[in-house]
Design a protein that fits this description.
It contains 14 helices and 19 strands. By secondary structure, the chain is an alpha+beta fold. A hairpin with a 3-residue loop joins strand 5 and strand 6. Helix 4 runs antiparallel to helix 5, helix 4 runs parallel beside helix 6 and helix 12 packs antiparallel against helix 13. The longest helix has 39 residues. The protein is globular, with a radius of gyration of 26 Å. It starts with a strand and ends with a helix.
Length: 594
């Protein structure tokens, strides 16, 4: 597995068949790279002979409608389009209830498969059983001669888009071809009553033009993806070794796959969206963006900035919606609605005041540092940021009964790690004010943050001095202090280095077969927070946890897109999968850069 490609190799008798899936989601900040904004994946097939004889290799491929419906009882239709150079097969629901499904599977739009025309290419729109049995039992690997493309539920005879072709394996060279899998979602997001197009429509209004471009750009897209993979892998291995690069390659497309891109309703800005996959399904959950942020700060800070734009517009009551949707809270929002609908009322937010206000301030400052201090886009939002910063000032040093991002564990009042986030966020706000040119304000908030550190250490360190506590009022407890990461990344240095050094030694003593748990309440861990925390450790401490996380990913019996919530003793999945929060595994790269 590489960041943008997955490779399979099969030896079948005297022939090797290599199958590679490539999704060219790279250089996210580079608007000149068109491929990253297209909903496309290439499937490359190579065949080569192992003996001195040529062999004809017949290849069959099909897909059901399951990628295009959220419920297999939905009715689907199929079609075929033949151009001079290639053939495209299409399947999708008949209802096309655009922007209506709110689960993790889409129920509108169309899945397409395209293949280069040639003398051996054969296609059919048929049932899975008929198409597959015909290929296997009717040499020379013939597909059903007639389509069965009647409208029917996706699970009635399981209609498929199927194709077959022949490649010739040779002793001295591989013969190859490719398929293009693409998805036209038609509309991406409902932003307070405005249905936003996917970004690729700003380049290619017709989806057949997306297909035409991608079919013609195959060689360049594959070469660019390979170069990106090689460069990123080299950088990751230099910092964390082979196992670290392998884990991060595994999650790369999991992170980028959780994103969507559109223009703003007025077409003047590019907006990014992140989905809270497999948990609440929310749109642009701020405390999901926060753990994922190291990936973007390392590879694409402009993409991270664009994630905050719709959230800031909502917070500033600039959505154009009715007054019912006015955001009137003194702290930052949690999310924008349930995907794909941005329509949440302020009173219906999942309230995490210090958590989300802190996340905003910290990440906006981090992006600004990555973009040479450019805060010009914040001109309409300075009053909002000031409100959130002042809320955190008034909520510290003890945030009381508030929820934090780890709310799946239940309430954790007087949370020491949440308090640390609040303090770091005030330092981050000081950085932003300094970039704005408000030196007096920057100094004032920095002094507040520095003063609060004293309160934090007095109440947050356990009586024996060996580690920090989970809650101010619970001696003998502990938790991973991942929120101290940006104290280091932002160059604030508010907290004495001895605090995280002592904590890391303590976490080492609590570590299990698959890593250190999240806190003293249970043996389960969070991969994102584990890597955030140990990014601040020594090379030996960091590598030890990387090895344990790699062992978990390699041996867990739960074969799902890599979960971030698992038991550190058994290696079993606790919940969550396929979530973009795994971008947090890139945290070490930020520390090394500093």
């Amino acid at each position: 597995v590489e960041p943008t490609s997955t490779y399979y190799s099969y030896t079948i008798g005297p022939v090797i068949i290599d199958v590679t899936f490539t999704t060219p989601a790279f250089e996210l900040d580079n608007d000149n790279v068109i491929d990253k904004d297209l909903p496309t994946t290439y499937m490359t097939l190579d065949v080569q002979s192992l003996d001195e004889v040529e062999h004809d290799v017949s290849v069959y491929f099909d897909t059901t409608a399951e990628l295009a419906v959220s419920d297999v009882e939905e009715e689907v239709t199929m079609s075929r389009d033949v151009t001079t150079d290639y053939t495209t097969l299409t399947i999708g629901s008949t209802s096309q209830n655009i922007l209506e499904s709110t689960d993790d599977r889409i129920s509108w739009g169309h899945l397409t498969i395209s293949a280069l025309n040639g003398p051996s290419l054969s296609t059919t729109l048929s049932s899975a059983e008929s198409s597959r049995s015909s290929f296997v039992n009717k040499p020379p690997q013939a597909l059903p001669p007639d389509d069965d493309d009647r409208t029917r539920p996706a699970n009635e005879d399981w209609p498929v888009l199927a194709l077959s072709f022949t490649l010739t394996s040779k002793p001295d060279s591989a013969e190859s071809t490719f398929l293009l899998l693409a998805y036209d979602e038609i509309k991406t997001m409902d932003f307070f009553g405005t249905a936003l197009d996917p970004y690729y429509k700003s380049m290619y209004p017709k989806f057949e033009d997306v297909i035409a471009y991608s079919m013609g750009n195959y060689a360049h897209a594959i070469a660019s993806s390979m170069n990106y993979d090689a460069s990123l892998t080299k950088a990751l291995e230099a910092v964390g070794g082979r196992k670290y690069s392998e884990i991060l390659a595994l999650v790369h497309r999991q992170v980028t796959g959780g994103l969507a891109k559109t223009l703003s309703p007025d077409g003047t800005e590019t907006w990014m969206w992140m989905k809270e996959i497999s948990s609440d399904g929310d749109v642009s959950t701020v405390d999901v963006i926060y753990p994922a942020a190291p990936f973007f700060l390392y590879t694409a800070p402009e993409t991270l900035r664009r994630m905050f734009l719709p959230l800031l517009v909502y917070s500033a009551n600039a959505t154009g919606a009715s007054a019912d949707y006015d955001y009137d809270l003194a702290w930052a929002p949690h999310h924008l609605g349930v995907w794909p609908h941005c329509d949440i009322l302020a009173k219906d937010q999942e309230q995490m005041p210090v958590e989300e206000s802190g996340n905003f301030l910290i990440l906006i400052a981090a992006v600004a540092q990555a973009q040479e201090g450019d805060v010009s886009y914040l001109a309409p939002y300075w009053d909002i940021l000031a409100t959130w910063a002042d809320y955190n000032v008034n909520s510290l040093p003890d945030p009381g009964e508030q929820l934090c991002t780890d709310d799946f564990e239940g309430p954790s009042p007087h949370n020491v790690n949440l308090a640390a986030k609040g303090i770091v966020s005030l330092g981050a706000y000081s950085i932003l004010l300094d970039m704005k040119g408000d030196e007096e304000g920057a100094k004032a908030y920095m002094e507040i943050a520095q003063g609060l550190v004293g309160n934090w250490t007095e109440g947050g360190i356990d009586a024996d001095g060996s580690h920090s506590k989970l809650q101010y009022d619970l001696p003998g407890t502990w938790s991973l202090k991942y929120n101290l990461l940006f104290d280091r990344v932002l160059g604030l240095n508010l907290f004495p280095s001895s605090i995280i050094e002592d904590d890391l030694k303590y976490y080492d003593s609590m570590s299990n077969a698959y890593g250190a748990p999240l806190d003293s309440r249970a043996t389960f861990g969070k991969s994102d927070w584990l890597m955030w925390t140990y990014a601040m450790g020594s090379s030996e401490q960091f590598q030890a946890q990387v090895d344990k996380l790699w062992d978990f990913a390699n041996t867990t019996t739960d074969r799902v897109p890599l979960t971030d919530w698992y038991d550190t003793v058994s290696g079993g999945q606790q919940g969550f999968q396929a979530r973009p929060v795994q971008g947090g595994l890139f945290a070490r790269m930020l520390v090394v850069e500093k």
